[in-house]
Amino acid sequence: MRMCKYIEEVVDNKFLKETMGILSFPREITDNNTCLILVNAGTRSRIGPHRLYTELARRFSSIGYTTLRYDSVCTGDSLRKVQNYDLVDELFLEVEKGLFVDGLMDCVEMILERIPEKKIILGGLCGGAMTSVYTYIDLPKHIKSQIDGFFLLGIPIFNLQVLGKKAPLIPEVADSIAKGYLKKIFDLDSWRNLLKGGTDFRLALNSIYYSLLNKIMKRNDDYPPNINIKLVKAFEQIAQDKKRLFFGYGEHDILLKEYESGFEQFIANNVKSIKTLDERCLKKFVASDDSHNLFYDRSRERLVSTFDGWRKDPYTVI
Q1: What is the sign of the dihedral through the CA atoms of 138, 144, 146 and 151?
Q2: What is the pLDDT of residue 44?
Q3: Which of 54, 128, 218, 236 has the least CB density, counted as fewest CB within 10 Å?
Q4: Span 44-56, mean pLDDT?
């Protein structure tokens, strides 16, 4: 019988306030002194969409990393609940504002108390990636020194809303969605799905509307009105502190368009500290033919090996 390369331990509310998590360790002693903390993907539990976090944690622990996946407030086995929200979008807006930051700070403190020699990488998918970046701003200086970098998967660069209203779709995202729907006009199965209520026709109409509007108005803002300013400020500080940033997306994730438009075209060209980073400090990974949740096993395997290989390379900030 093949021996498992990792061992796991339940971390309950004796160590984490009002929540619980799973610590994964490599079975054999290694010289890797890194702990990766995976923060909830939006409103999902510590398991992650399609077991993403469970699989990533075990893959990383099999090659020497310690990992923690846990439940933030109002998710999974968390003991703390928040007010009821009518729509998942409403709850995600709270995540966008920093709902899970306090919980992640507790996790960081717990790891450093139990394993003080560890360097920590903060990360997660979508809302978990946002929470990781937000939390860094609020960490005390002595704890910031223990943060080694960030593992950011499918992170949204733009806000869901602007001044209390739904944010307009950026040109690249609107075009991408609109083209996808327009291709389905002659697809009978798509029409059947629409008539059964299985298609979000509001998103379809919204994307086509903004795609046409952007073309008519020839919109090309120097400063995107709905870019997440809180993220911009956090990235600026992270780069100043010489922390490493790893971004991962599925090829078909519409948020990849946001990253290319919002981060690569705007932030990287306008934030001085980020302009100085080279590929040894800033890395983008794109999983071929995959989606936002990085569904395929091949994508997850390549994600882990790419991150590990990139992280082991020496780097400097120019």
Answers
A1: positive
A2: 81
A3: 218
A4: 91
CB 66 within 8 A of CB 36: yes
Nearest CA-CA partner of 135 in 234, 273, 41: 234
Question: CB neighbours of 196 closer than 8 A, spacing ≥ 6?
Answer: none
pLDDT tens digits, 270-302: 777 887 777 778 999 999 999 999 999 999 999
* Distance of alpha carbon 255 from alpha carbon 250, whole angstroms: 9
Say how far residue 292 (Cα) sits from the centre of its chain. 10
> Under DSSP, is residue 73 helix (H, G, I), strand (E, B) or coil?
coil
More confident: 194 or 288: 288
Nearest to 171 by CA among 123, 227, 210, 217: 210
Is the predicted pLDDT of residue 163 greater than 50, yes or no?
A: no
Nearest CA among 251, 243, 262 for reference residue 302? 251
CATH class of segment(s) 6-160+226-312: alpha beta
**Among 144, 125, 134, CA closest to 228:** 134
Helix, strand or coil for residue 165? strand
Domain ranges of the chain: 6-160+226-312, 168-217
Residue type (1 letter), 249: Y
pLDDT at 95 over 60: yes
The structure tokens listed for 1 are 């019988």
Query: Which CA distances in Å does 274 have to 156, 164, 233, 243, 268?
Result: 18, 30, 11, 11, 6
Q: How far is CA 64 from CA 32, 57, 171, 273, in A?
A: 6, 11, 42, 32
